[in-house]
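> forwarded from #structure-qc
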């Protein structure tokens, strides 16, 4: 637990992490906790006579808050102060952008390797294992999230997890993966077809890709997340597919795979240079399958930069 005061910062942790904390947190005082973490934090607040402490309600449970307040005593008043860290993390500096660019390029290399192993008879779980194996081989510390490999009718599930289902001919296959490199996440999706796709599937794919391109073209400083979302949604509506778009167009990426700013309906926060967001329109048709194309996009002082660089052309295998 990090306690920040006008006089500096103190990291309260247990004996498993004190050496690591001193190595990784220069300039921060490291204090060994006694007992459980939240009572130890409350005791720290009491000893330092803190009268007013803010906490993030999105990170604390009710039980944890009660334990900290009990140890802190009646003289310390706690207040909700959510989103402070998240707002700071929205804007990446040049060093962070460099790491995220490398993480996105690595994810693209893994995606290309994954597409090469797709063929009828290979199980979804085997493809996922290949993806995570190649991530480690290329230097990632691990996946940003549980890899998604969804084929056939299961591709209509936006967050499907890999199963033992074998890939079959004449099916859509959705691959959604991300790699952590230097503590920063990447996130990308590609959809391929095993066999020769019927006209309807081709038209759907091109509509989703057009929606992706329209949203990317909208990204620039001063534009709201809602406006970027609307650009993608308008293209799908024009093609009669908006009812199959069941999630938002994107989200921020950074130390976590889901961060602010959100790219969704009604989002009024304006993008700034240094934000990194996903653009991931998709359609999901029950009993048929799904199509999603996702890129990581950095907001620059003038326009944007695509960090993910794998082809977005329709691939038929």
């Amino acid at each position: 637990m990090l306690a920040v005061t006008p006089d500096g910062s103190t990291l309260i942790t247990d004996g498993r992490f004190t050496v690591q904390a001193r190595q990784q947190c220069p300039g921060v005082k490291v204090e060994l906790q006694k007992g459980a973490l939240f009572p130890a934090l409350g005791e720290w607040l009491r000893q330092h006579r803190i009268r007013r402490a803010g906490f993030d309600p999105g990170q604390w449970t009710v039980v944890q808050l009660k334990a900290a307040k009990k140890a802190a005593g009646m003289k310390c008043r706690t207040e909700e102060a959510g989103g402070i860290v998240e707002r700071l993390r929205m804007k990446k500096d040049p060093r962070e952008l460099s790491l995220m660019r490398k993480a996105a390029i690595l994810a693209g290399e893994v995606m290309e390797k994954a597409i090469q192993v797709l063929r009828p008879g290979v199980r979804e779980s085997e493809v996922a294992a290949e993806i995570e194996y190649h991530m480690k081989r290329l230097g990632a510390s691990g996946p940003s999230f549980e890899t998604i490999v969804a084929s056939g009718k299961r591709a209509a599930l936006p967050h499907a997890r890999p199963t033992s289902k074998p890939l079959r001919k004449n099916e859509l296959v959705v691959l959604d993966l991300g790699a952590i490199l230097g503590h920063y996440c990447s996130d990308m999706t590609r959809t391929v077809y095993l066999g020769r796709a019927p006209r309807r599937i081709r038209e759907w794919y091109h509509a989703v890709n057009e929606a992706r391109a329209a949203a990317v073209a909208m990204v620039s400083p001063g534009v709201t997340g809602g406006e970027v979302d609307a650009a993608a949604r308008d293209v799908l509506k024009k093609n009669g597919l908006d009812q199959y778009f069941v999630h938002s167009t994107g989200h921020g990426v950074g130390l976590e795979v889901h961060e602010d700013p959100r790219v969704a309906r009604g989002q009024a926060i304006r993008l700034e240079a240094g934000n990194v967001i996903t653009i991931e329109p998709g359609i999901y048709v029950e009993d048929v399958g799904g199509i999603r194309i996702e890129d990581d996009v950095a907001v620059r002082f003038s326009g944007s930069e695509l960090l993910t660089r794998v082809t977005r052309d329709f691939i038929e295998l």
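QC bot note: The chain has eight helices and 19 strands. Residues 2-82 form a domain with the Creatine Amidinohydrolase; Chain A, domain 1 fold (CATH 3.40.350.10).
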